[in-house]
Amino acid sequence: MATQEPDTPAPRVDPLTLEVVELIGSVVARYYEEYEVAAGKHALTGAQARVLGLLSLEPMPMRRIAQKLKCEPSNVTGIVDRLEARGLVERRPDPADRRVKLAAPTADGLTTARSLRESLDFAREPLAELSRAERESLRELLRRMLGA
Hints:
CATH class: Mainly Alpha
Largest sheet: 2 strands, antiparallel
GO molecular function, one term: DNA binding
InterPro entries: HTH_MarR-typ (IPR000835), MarR/SlyA-like (IPR039422), Tscrpt_reg_MarR-type_CS (IPR023187), WH-like_DNA-bd_sf (IPR036388), WH_DNA-bd_sf (IPR036390)
Distance between the termini: 48 Å
Protein name: MarR family transcriptional regulator
Strand order of the largest sheet: 1-2
CATH topology: Arc Repressor Mutant, subunit A
Organism: Streptomyces alboflavus
CATH architecture: Orthogonal Bundle
Domain HTH marR-type: 17-147
Order of helices and strands: HHHHEEHHH
């Protein structure tokens, strides 16, 4: 006669975890909402604004942009095409491998990215309420959550 394993109880989710998940969801939703509004003021979509923001940190190939945004490279190509048509982004050869094209912000693109960043009050204002030590703690906790 085969032995039967006892039923494993369903994992319990405690109220604290549920509240934290809900709060994270609220923060993310408010951030994206404000980001869309800020992007719209520059006649950009949220996706275009996110790509421009990434490129303002450093030029990068489409594949890397797609990895960072967790989307398909073909989607990024279309976004970069539209940003390029607006004069905010340009494609240039990668100095390390001339077969690879990098997307890079133009001077207008950098100005637009800076203006977008400066208009995102929601992301800054709540963090301003925290001390430097609290912000560092939050950063470390978020990194741990993301496995970084």
